[in-house]
Design brief:
This protein is mostly helical and 248 residues long. It contains 9 helices and 2 strands, in the order ααααββααααα. Helix 2 runs antiparallel to helix 3 and helix 2 packs antiparallel against helix 7. Belongs to the binding-protein-dependent transport system permease family. HisMQ subfamily.
């Protein structure tokens, strides 16, 4: 295993290309921690945004005009404002007025840290798009199928959970795929509130080692691999749910 670090160190000495993450254990650990944080942000926000999308789409068809109006307002607000502004609003705006504790030096310690705020803001941002994606899938479900579920004694909630949502999911998975891929790339905005994700870690490394070009290459390849893995998982999920002749 020492061959790879030795090769990259020799590459630096002979060509000047300084990929420190591949031969310096300290930089390697910072890079791996950054990738791990990006994965945590991605998985957390994907799960939360899917839940928000499914619940929001259900509530869009609620009998109450107030509930429907609140959901529509949520979608308009979070879909039409930049995700970076939303992250700043939650971290610097909402976070500043919430109660906080103090550390041993008397400094303010918020109960919700920057990682939590990034997850909340990005989940709501992607969730707003997911509400509309799920709604489009629900509209593709034949009314006769819904009526058949109701005739079998399903309540509105049970019909949605066991019949409508599984069928709608098959239709809206391609659009959902695109939104979740965008969400993975949008996690880089957490850099703005000092969340130590991949971009943040790589920026620290190139600031100290002055190897911007090499670390940018590492950054592009890293996100290419992460997006490729997510796309592969989504395609496998889409293929497993596909019903021949339905929804395509």
């Amino acid at each position: 295993m020492d061959v790879i670090p030795a090769w990259f160190k020799d590459l630096y000495e002979t060509t000047g290309l300084n990929f420190t993450v591949f031969y310096d254990p300290y930089d390697w650990n910072r890079y791996v921690d950054g990738v791990r944080m990006t994965v945590v942000l991605t998985v957390s926000t994907i799960l939360a945004s899917l839940l928000i999308g499914a619940v929001g789409a259900l509530l869009q068809g609620a009998p109450s005009r107030i509930v429907r109006g609140a959901i529509n307002g949520f979608v308009v607000l979070f879909r039409n404002t930049p995700p970076l502004v939303q992250i700043f609003f939650f971290y610097f705006g909402i976070g500043a007025i919430l109660p906080a504790g103090q550390d041993q030096f008397g400094l303010r310690q918020p109960f919700i840290d920057n990682v939590d705020w990034a997850i909340i803001a990005l989940s709501l941002f992607a969730g707003a798009f997911n509400v509309e994606i799920f709604r489009s899938g629900i509209e593709a479900v034949p009314k006769t199928t819904v009526e058949a579920a109701e005739a079998l004694g399903y309540t509105r909630l049970k019909a949605y959970v066991y019949v409508i949502l599984p069928l709608a999911l098959r239709v809206c998975l391609p659009a959902l795929n695109n939104n979740l891929v965008n969400l993975l790339k949008t996690t880089t905005l957490a850099y703005a509130i000092a969340v130590p994700e991949t971009l943040y870690a790589v920026k620290q490394i190139w600031s100290e080692s002055q190897n911007v070009f090499e670390m940018m290459l590492v950054l592009f390849v890293t996100y290419g691999i992460l997006v490729g893995i997510l796309v592969w998982i989504m395609h496998r999920w889409e293929k497993s749910l596909h019903i021949p002749g339905y929804g395509r």
